[in-house]
Amino acid sequence: PESFRDVLQEYASRTKKIRDLVLRSIAELLEIDEDYFVNQISNKASGFARFNYYPPCPRPDLVLGLRPHSDGGLLTILFNDDNVGGLQIQRDGRWYNVPTKPHTLLINLADCLEIMNNGIFRSPFHRVVTNVEKDRLSLAVFYAVDAETMLEPAPGLLDDKRPSRYRKMLAKDFVAGLFEHFRQGKRFIDTLKI
């Protein structure tokens, strides 16, 4: 519906501002050019929104809402359900619940950004579990780089003491490998480590 289209357009416009603010803040923390990551996004770069609905599940021990993965693009902005958890991240082989907090956005750094920051900030391996009693909604906005972008660590992060941790790869080739590894529940980015 047109009214919903306007709301979604406004939401997308505001999340772009948040994306750019987060990317500039990361660059500042890394002490590289503030616009380095923002400049990696061309007008050909993809961005899309995905609405997720997870109905109640009588056997959440047997059914995942979304299998373990890391996001393949640049950055994900997630508007999570205020009342029902389900998002989990993995650390050191253990799964941890991500707490829900009303009216907040969750920012996930994605694999392409991990490569560009040379692994200083990591893309989290995560999944969604189902709930036995309640349904869950979320809205994820995924931002990526242009398919022809060469994924590699920012030059300002490399020197003799800090060599590249990842092989160079075109973004479109990375995405192709990503889907194959997603089906296997593995992180494709791990195959690029030097």
Query: Which CATH architecture is right?
Result: Sandwich
Structural class: alpha+beta
* Count of the domains: 1
* Individual helix count: 3
- Reading side by side through the largest sheet, how are the strands ordered? 1-8-3-6
* CATH homologous superfamily grouping: B-lactam Antibiotic, Isopenicillin N Synthase, Chain
Shape: globular
Mean pLDDT: 89
* Beta-strand content estimate: 25-35%
What is the number of beta strands?
10
- The helicity comes to 10-25%
The biggest sheet amounts to:
4 strands, antiparallel
Compressed to H and E, one letter per element, the order equals HEEEEEEHEEEEH
Report the C-alpha radius of gyration, rounded.
17 Å
CATH class identity: Mainly Beta
Name the poorly predicted regions. Answer: none
Distance separating the two termini: 49 Å
InterPro entries: IPNS-like_FE2OG_OXY (IPR044861), IPNS-like_sf (IPR027443), Oxoglu/Fe-dep_dioxygenase_dom (IPR005123), Plant_2OG-oxidoreductases (IPR050295)
Organism: Aegilops tauschii subsp. strangulata
Protein name: Fe2OG dioxygenase domain-containing protein
Keywords: Iron, Metal-binding
Written description of the protein model:
It is a single chain. The protein is of the alpha+beta class. It has a single domain, classed as B-lactam Antibiotic, Isopenicillin N Synthase, Chain (Jelly Rolls, Sandwich). Helices cover 24% and strands 26% of the residues. The chain has a four-stranded antiparallel beta sheet. The protein has a four-stranded antiparallel beta sheet with strand order 2-7-4-5, with no helix packed on it. The chain has a two-stranded antiparallel ribbon with strand order 9-10. Strand 4 and strand 5 form a beta hairpin. The radius of gyration is 17 Å and the shape is globular. It starts with a helix and ends in an 11-residue tail after the last helix.
